[in-house]
Amino acid sequence: MAQESVKNQRDGSSNGRDEKDKSNIRSTLYSQFEDLLEENKKSSVEKLLLKGLNQLIKFYHNSECYQGSTSSNKIEGELQNNERSSSNDREFFRERSQSSKGSSTVYGFENEVLSLERMLLKSGSVDQFKAIAVVGMAGVGKTTLCQEVFNKEEVKRHFVPRIWVCMSRQPNDDENFKAVIVKRMLECLGVDDEVINSIPKDHELSGLVYALHLELMTKKYLIVLEDCEETDEWYEKLYNSSSNGEKWGEQLCHGFPKGYGGAVIVTSRNEEVAKKMVGEENLLQLQPLSDPESCWSIYKDSVVAEGVEFISQEQLKEKLKSKCGGLPLAAKLMGKIKADQQGNAAAQAQDASHQEY
């Protein structure tokens, strides 16, 4: 079961292992994935998936072995670049802002689902604004957790409208990224492009934030801001209300009306960024899954989702436990790889059968 902690640099881990131990871990991991890449070098799909999986496992094990933030930040940067270039059908890292689609079965996050739901629907003032952050390393399941809660019937009844907005920068984004973010929200809320584009450029940001505020006024909204990494003060203190001493657009929080029961959920890998946005007391922190059966279930579902019959193998199950590091995304990627392997094998067998005739 995932417990709440974002810091995967576990205390004493580097002191507890000498350089020989670290080297052995790295060598074992690299050789395992080099073998897999060699076995599947003819399949471009598998190569993409294996590349993503390799980066995830490397990130997880290196963060366990090393306390140094510079090394970990470099690895995380490589992982982030890989995420943005990998296959387009993954549900964890979407390429553009959109409302969240229906989620698949969630394993290992039962307590976290309940915690997040309670934070959203907790008793007290029904009109109180809530700002919550889900924090954890890449691939740990932040998006899946939020999707599960986002699509719960009670949450749907409680919050209208509900929108899901990706906060990642895209190659074709305007230089004024703050304006891009607000435009994404307005588009998700169904505001016409004509209205959005009618805002004068010399007052664009303040006009967009004001338009967002008006659109959400009196509504009990739920907004998920996925993958927040920006460190600009403009994104901070989402729980603040606009005051007479501030101009529209000086803070993102001005776009979120207070006093109507609205809520914002932030997902981020950066704990400090999340704290500044929602406050330290409103963090929900995720750790890799400690229950091997949950990873196995994710793996099985991923195989079946590709339209391939799942064949249980205890030996494979043990390998999965050792390789995925408790990361749901790693287990899912491994399932896709296995499905692709089985599909290729079936196709080759069919071709061979046809050639015999």
What features would you describe in this structure?
- With 357 residues, the chain is an alpha/beta fold.
- It folds into 2 domains: 13-87 and 289-345, no CATH class; 110-285, Rossmann fold, CATH 3.40.50.
- 51% of the residues lie in helices and 7% in strands.
- It has 14 helices and 5 strands.
- It has helices spanning 13-16, 19-39, 44-65, 69-85, 110-121, 142-150, 153-158, 177-188, 193-197, 204-216, 271-278, 292-305, 314-323, 328-356, and strands at 130-135, 162-166, 222-226, 263-268, 283-285.
- Strands 2-3-4-1-5 form a 5-stranded parallel sheet, with helices on both faces.
- 36% of the residues are buried.
- It comes from Acer yangbiense.
- Residues 86-98 have a biased composition (Basic and acidic residues).
- This is NB-ARC domain-containing protein.
- Residues 70-85 have a biased composition (Polar residues).
- InterPro entries: NB-ARC, P-loop_NTPase.
Short recap of the structure:
The protein is of the alpha/beta class and 357 residues long. The chain has helices at residues 13-16, 19-39, 44-65, 69-85, 110-121, 142-150, 153-158, 177-188, 193-197, 204-216, 271-278, 292-305, 314-323, 328-356, and strands at residues 130-135, 162-166, 222-226, 263-268, 283-285.
Structural topology:
Blueprint: H1 13-16, H2 19-39, H3 44-65, H4 69-85, H5 110-121, E1 130-135, H6 142-150, H7 153-158, E2 162-166, H8 177-188, H9 193-197, H10 204-216, E3 222-226, E4 263-268, H11 271-278, E5 283-285, H12 292-305, H13 314-323, H14 328-356
Parallel strand pairs: 1-4, 1-5, 2-3, 3-4
Helix pairs in contact: 2-3, 3-4, 3-14, 5-6, 8-10, 12-14
